[in-house]
Coproheme decarboxylase (Oceanobacillus jordanicus), 249 residues
Amino acid sequence: MVEAVETMDGWYSLHDLRSIDWNAWKLATEEERKQAIDSLHKLLDKWEAVEEAKDGSQVLYKVLGQKADLMFMFLRPTMDELSEMETELSKSKMGEFLLPAHSYVSVVELSKYRESKDGIDPETLPETQARLKPILPKWEYICFYPMDRRRQGDENWYTLEKNVRAKMLYEHSKTGRKYAGKVKQIITGSIGLDDWEWGVTLFAHEPLEFKKIVYEMRFDEVSSKYGEFGEFFVGNHLPKEHLRTYLSI
Ligand code: 76R
């Protein structure tokens, strides 16, 4: 019988994408705009304190293109906290100028495909815990997309034996490791949580690295035969200090 792989699951994740209602923003008074920016600053400060205490993490990017304007990625130990963050953003003064654009719910995931060494449960290792509860990099660029493993005819990931899947993922990881220091990836699992099976969040200092890694991986068997991909979102980092300039009109 084909065996599922055991997963290690970390912080819950919400990719929260919003569009700015630029017309409403322009029609608002200077005072209202100031209040709105202040309200977002206040939330970002509050969330930053949570990150400093290592109880969660978040980033904010400006989405390029017409799919959205802002992408928040929130990580928290519970879905309840994510729900609170989503609502406090909507309830804030800034929220009056934000329109929902897209969202994705998942959980940081690592799988136990590799045999554990010396019988040590990898989940107990500090390096595993750090990867399951990552402090998100504040790198210049982000790329986010959802994906599935194919279940069609002879190309069915879910009928492959575990050792066959493990070998393919090992080959995949070798491609990935070539990008060490250039691309940082966070894989989040979303089976049972959202419309696709995984979320892929990549960070880079140079956007061309996204094209290079994703292209190169398309030739790995695990992607060429078994990868199906959703919508891509790319963006530029928006540090708190740049908010006022970004929103000034
Ligand atoms: O422990 C590990 O995480 C290392 C081995 C590894 C696994 C098991 C690994 C390494 N990945 C794994 C699993 Mn990955 N990954 C993707 C994408 O666009 C595409 O074609 C694929 C999108 C990228 C860019 C990427 C990058 N990986 C997975 C899974 C779960 C599969 C399952 O369980 O069926 C998915 C969906 C997925 C997709 N992967 C790496 C990378 C990189 C850069 C690495 C090397 C990380 C490192 O060693 O530092």
Observations:
- Helices lie at 22-27, 30-52, 79-91, 126-132, 162-177, 208-218, 221-224, 243-247.
- Residues 30-52 form the longest helix (23 residues).
